[in-house]
């Protein structure tokens, strides 16, 4: 079973984008968690297009990201969530916390 998670960080002015490639699991969440915590922009987009599955620890990190950003009035958007990951969020009854998009919004140059 593949456990490597690749993170690609991109700044778009007022928005940070974290692109994940690989499963989001207990074995690999710490770098992702640190990246989420380090983002201080008003908006954070997590591109999950290449995340085939997630475990409870991965869901926990997403909830932590939501709580952290929500308390400060900052936005979080999950992009490209696969059906398998979406089902995991539904089954655990946390899907309603998140905003979803099928694709990355266009980069407006920080506008």
TrEMBL record:
Residue stretches making up the STAS domain: 5-111
GO molecular-function terms, A-Z: anti-sigma factor antagonist activity
Pfam family, one: STAS
Superkingdom of the organism of origin: Bacteria
PANTHER family assigned to the protein according to its UniProt record, in alphabetical order: ANTI-SIGMA FACTOR ANTAGONIST TM_1081-RELATED (PTHR33495:SF2), ANTI-SIGMA FACTOR ANTAGONIST TM_1081-RELATED-RELATED (PTHR33495)
Protein family membership: Belongs to the anti-sigma-factor antagonist family.
Protein known as: Anti-sigma factor antagonist
The species this protein was found in: Koribacter versatilis (strain Ellin345)
Taxonomic lineage: Bacteria, Pseudomonadati, Acidobacteriota, Terriglobia, Terriglobales
